[in-house]
Amino acid sequence: MPDVVFPLDSGKKFTDQKYLGHNRWHPDIPTQVTVRPDDTFRVHCREWFDGAIHNDDSADDVRDAPLSTVHVLSGPIAVEGAEPGDLLIVDILDVGPIPQEDSGPLAGQGWGYTGIFATQNGGGFLTEQFPDAYKVIWDFSGQTATSRHVPGVSFTGIVHPGLMGTAPSADLLARWNRREAALIATDPDRVPPLALPPLPQDAILGGLTGAEFERVAGEAARTAPPRENGGNQDIKNLTKGSRVFYPVFVPGAKLSMGDLHFSQGDGEITFCGAIEMGGFMDLHVDVIKGGMETYGVSENAVFMPGNVDPRYERWLAFSGTSVTLDDEQHYLDSHLSYQRACLHAIDYLTRFGYTPEQAYMILGAAPIEGRLSGVVDIPNSCSTVYIPTGIFDFDVTPSASGPTRIDPGAGVPRSSF
Ligand code: ZN
């Protein structure tokens, strides 16, 4: 096993650990650990809410989830000799849940969760149809996930970090803040908000205190969106065996990671749509000097996915076009057409006995594929969502004999405001 350079004690809060991580992006968050090019090392990661979500049958914790506290990230890890303009090579040698025999109170210890966030607390891709908070607990058995809240389904996890990236430079951070503030200003009272401005409340900044904390907390970017540094890309294919090339914006690159997922469908559509968990990552790093210029990589990371994929061979695919549910025509709007494809799939799955919430959760958490199938055929874009038929323990395809009805059980825990 590689040396654990960023250990986390499962019995302690994120802020009480030996090394202090962070939950904002800023170039002045202090380096916690330094490694060298060609080093291999292990990092522990806490689940994104640091234990606020529990293994129970109530969605109150998801409804009240403290979004100001996310994402708790391990790092920054400096790589000796990395300079702005370089590319940082990060190999994901291994990634998995908390390696522990017994189940414990933290997500990752044999279980994880998927949530639908209430419209008033972040919302999700289909928040108009699903305005309340819901929760699903998934149990892990080796590579397989099953849920007492969603009967008739089991699937192979595709474990990956939802979030990994390098620190922004001061200039890049200022650009983020400028452009995101301009977007917020177009509709400042929107629920859910258009973007999240810097928020000193609940900021964790690698141990900074006093006036320095105040300055950095007032400027530091929230971790929700993906940006030029990588960040919260939620790419399900960043699994074991992947190689990622991150732009370096500050001396040492200052790599950080977290938000591990046991599995996720393309789009992570319920917002907390992956199966969230804590765990470990084994990483190898190296540096390509001047690589940003050489390869033209300044606008986000380039990556080579690993070869570890669930082997599903048959799929049932649903398409959607850029027309609203009220039959209003939109012009080549792929966001809308993917929503329609997902709503189409959800409606279909309810014919087999699932509640709409259970169907939505399956699309968020199972290894479904989402595609922009057509983006030029005016006025309709065409998006598609592919569901592997093998995740169901009954025949989910259309047939003359009609759908098999499953017993949906008690359904998915729900909490409204
Ligand atoms: Zn996540």
Structure explained in plain terms:
With 417 residues, the chain is of the alpha+beta class. It folds into 2 domains: 4-304, Acetamidase/Formamidase-like domains (Jelly Rolls, Sandwich); 315-391. It is built from 6 helices and 21 strands. The protein has helices at residues 60-63, 170-185, 210-219, 291-295, 334-350, 356-365; strands spanning 4-6, 33-35, 40-45, 74-79, 87-97, 111-116, 133-141, 144-147, 150-156, 160-165, 226-227, 230-231, 243-247, 255-261, 271-276, 279-288, 302-304, 315-321, 369-374, 382-388, 414-415. Strands 1-3-16-5-13-17 form a 6-stranded mixed beta sheet, with no helix packed on it. It has a 6-stranded mixed beta sheet with strand order 2-4-14-10-12-11, with no helix packed on it. Strand 8 (144-147) and strand 9 (150-156) form a beta hairpin. Helix 5 (334-350) packs across helix 6 (356-365). The longest helix has 17 residues, at 334-350. The protein is globular, with a radius of gyration of 21 Å. The mean pLDDT is 96. The structure holds zinc ion. Zinc ion binds at residues 48, 162, 259, 261, 274, 276. This is Formamidase. InterPro entries: FmdA_AmdA (IPR004304), FormamaseFmdA (IPR054833). It comes from Geodermatophilus tzadiensis. One of its GO terms (molecular function) is hydrolase activity, acting on carbon-nitrogen (but not peptide) bonds, in linear amides. It holds the Pfam family FmdA_AmdA.
